[in-house]
Amino acid sequence: MTQHESPPVTLIKQFLPPKLCQLLWQESQNYPLEKIVIQVFGKYHPIPRTQVWFADSGCDYKYSGSLIRALPWPQELAKIRLLLTQKLPEYATHINGVLVNHYVDGQDCMGWHSDNEPEIVKDSAILSLTLGAARDFVVRHKVTKQKFNYLLAEGDLLIMHGGMQQAWEHALPKRARVNSPRLNYTFRHIKPDFYQKFN
Ligand SMILES: O=C(O)CCC(=O)C(=O)O
């Protein structure tokens, strides 16, 4: 790669109109958000955010060793999925699950990782939609360690193109000055029934 290669992402500012942001935010007040506890080197750590996974039946997802069963799509969220497939068919037609992360304030965060779980269809795009507080989303090349920063604000849609997860990782760092909540939706294409094979 060249020294100045940019990450394979497209940022669409204010993709979701304010009225739809408002309806989705209202609906999110009833999400069954959970704080997952993960085990690292024998010690238990609650993750610094809460999460819920909505998906088509059979599209379960594994997060740090715990299998998370698919909950059915809430009404407003299902409409957003439809909107994505209409506006961005090239990327969104095969979406069948969405991970929702809720950050109470700037102390909640997500560490460096790639979305490269085996149940994600290889080279599929991941679409990230933000509501609430604006936060920095940082992308880092796995080899050169070059970093790029994207400020994600309410209604913004970030497309992480196919192939991104192989070469790049991303994180949502803590931000001391952020004192209001944020929701992030990552719409994904999952291999249906991937985990049923192991049950
Ligand atoms: O909240 C964000 O913008 C990041 C979410 C994320 O990295 C993920 O769901 O894998």
TrEMBL record:
PROSITE patterns: FE2OG_OXY
SUPFAM superfamilies linked to this entry: Clavaminate synthase-like
Keyword Metal-binding in record: no
Residue span(s) of domain Fe2OG dioxygenase: 94-191
MF GO annotations: broad specificity oxidative DNA demethylase activity; cytosine C-5 DNA demethylase activity; ferrous iron binding
PANTHER family assigned to the protein according to its UniProt record, in alphabetical order: ALPHA-KETOGLUTARATE-DEPENDENT DIOXYGENASE ALKB HOMOLOG 2, DNA OXIDATIVE DEMETHYLASE ALKBH2
InterPro entries per the UniProt record, alphabetical: AlkB-like (IPR027450), AlkB-like_sf (IPR037151), ALKBH2 (IPR032852), Oxoglu/Fe-dep_dioxygenase_dom (IPR005123)
Binding site for substrate: F41, G42, K43, Y61, K62, Y63
Protein name per Swiss-Prot or TrEMBL: Alpha-ketoglutarate-dependent dioxygenase AlkB
One BP term from GO: DNA alkylation repair
Keywords annotated in UniProt: Dioxygenase, Oxidoreductase
Binding site for 2-oxoglutarate: N101, Y103, H113, H170, R182, T186, R188
